[in-house]
DNA sequence: ACATATTCCTGGGGGC
DNA sequence: TGCCCCCAGGAATATG
């Protein structure tokens, strides 16, 4: 599932593949759901004839800059965007194909059809996805202070839920939140209000480190992720907790646990990430809140 | 206003 | 072998 390192890898491989400077000759919308704005017909006619002038990224959004406008792509869970030879096999679930002026094609495929395109005039176009306009800072730019302020706004939220909120910090998903919290030795259920300065610093640092390592390995591929050249990533080999339930922690050997936090499957080491609410060794703020378990799944009503 | 649940979607895996 | 059900989850939307 493409998160920041995967989307950035797609961006870089599309750049390396020479997408910038190419002109779009023809647009085929094979499944209208993939085009979120404007209508598929306008999408095609507005795109045709335009050159791609640059490729950017914000959070998990890929930004194809055009001579006149901006093509915003989001891959969500299973989306793929890659440069293809025109005679390459037509994979099922291919929803959009852009024919380029060098004979190649930019293809978009998405089995689950969660992903798609917005064609807008610019980043702050009201027609751009709201999520893009409300995006928080990139993880590389996230300071401890910003994290602390977000914690102040959501003191009772589990820290995992905070990090998944794209308005707080952009580009994180389930894999890298679990990985970063393990590196920071913070339990995913810890309430934001209970986190001390050192823990917030550790989280911000762990985010930078794990994302840099994932990017160096061209992202994580379990099944679906492929880069802009159709190649899988390799970071799955280096994951410490994600999808490692029952396997030994790479730090201490204890079996990795799995539970559900903020509605997501959540992996952590019960030894390295102690305390689902209580201040552990490092918390410098001595008193304040007594350990509060910050239970997330308190379905008080008849849910289910 | 806030936090959580539901919804979208399909392939894969477990159970039988 | 095949069917059924559940699960994966980003982010918009609904609900409490």
CATH superfamily of the largest domain: MutM-like, N-terminal
- Give the low-confidence spans: 278-304
Count of DSSP strands: 11
Helix fraction? 10-25%
Helix count from the secondary structure assignment: 7
Instruction: Write out the strand line-up for the largest beta sheet, numbering strands in chain order.
Output: 2-9-5-4-3
Please state the structural category: alpha+beta
* Tertiary shape: globular
The CATH architecture of the largest domain comes to: Alpha-Beta Barrel
Structural description of this entry:
The protein has 304 residues and is of the alpha+beta class. It folds into two domains: 4-133, Alpha-Beta Barrel (N-terminal domain of MutM-like DNA repair proteins), CATH 3.20.190.10; 139-268, Helicase, Ruva Protein, domain 3, CATH 1.10.8.50. The chain has helices at residues 4-16, 40-47, 130-133, 144-153, 159-164, 174-184, 197-216, and strands at residues 24-29, 35-37, 52-58, 61-66, 69-74, 79-84, 94-100, 105-110, 116-120, 257-261, 264-268. It has a five-stranded mixed beta sheet. It has a four-stranded antiparallel beta sheet with strand order 1-7-8-6, covered by helices on one side. Strands 10-11 form a two-stranded antiparallel ribbon. The longest helix is centred in the last third of the chain and has 20 residues, at 197-216. Residues 278-304 have low confidence and may be disordered.
């Amino acid at each position: 599932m493409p998160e920041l390192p995967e989307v950035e890898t797609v961006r870089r491989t599309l750049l390396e593949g020479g997408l910038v400077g190419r002109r779009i000759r023809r647009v085929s919308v094979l499944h209208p759901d993939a085009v979120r704005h404007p209508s598929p017909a306008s999408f095609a006619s507005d795109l045709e004839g335009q050159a791609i002038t640059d490729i950017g990224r914000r959070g998990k959004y890929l930004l194809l800059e055009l001579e006149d406008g901006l093509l915003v792509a989001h891959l969500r869970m299973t989306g793929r965007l890659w440069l293809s030879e025109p005679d390459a096999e037509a994979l099922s679930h291919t929803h959009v194909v852009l024919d380029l002026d060098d004979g190649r094609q930019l293809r978009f495929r998405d089995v689950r059809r969660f992903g798609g395109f917005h064609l807008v005039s610019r980043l702050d176009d009201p027609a751009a996805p709201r999520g893009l306009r409300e995006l928080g800072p990139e993880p590389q730019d996230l300071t401890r202070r910003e994290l602390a302020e977000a914690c102040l706004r959501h003191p009772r939220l589990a820290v995992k839920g905070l990090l998944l909120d794209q308005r707080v910090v952009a580009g994180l998903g389930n894999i890298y939140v679990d990985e970063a919290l393990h590196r920071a030795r913070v339990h995913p259920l810890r309430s934001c209000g209970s986190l001390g300065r050192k823990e917030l610093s550790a989280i911000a640092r762990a985010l930078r480190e794990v994302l840099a390592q994932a990017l160096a390995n061209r992202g994580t591929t379990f099944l679906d992720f492929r880069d802009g050249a159709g190649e899988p990533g390799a970071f799955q080999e280096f994951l410490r907790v994600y999808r490692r339930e029952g396997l030994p922690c790479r730090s201490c050997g204890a079996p990795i646990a799995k539970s559900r936090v903020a509605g997501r499957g959540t992996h952590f080491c019960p030894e390295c990430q102690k305390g689902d609410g209580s201040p552990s060794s490092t918390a410098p703020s001595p008193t304040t809140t007594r350990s509060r378990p910050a239970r997330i799944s308190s379905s008080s009503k008849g849910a289910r």
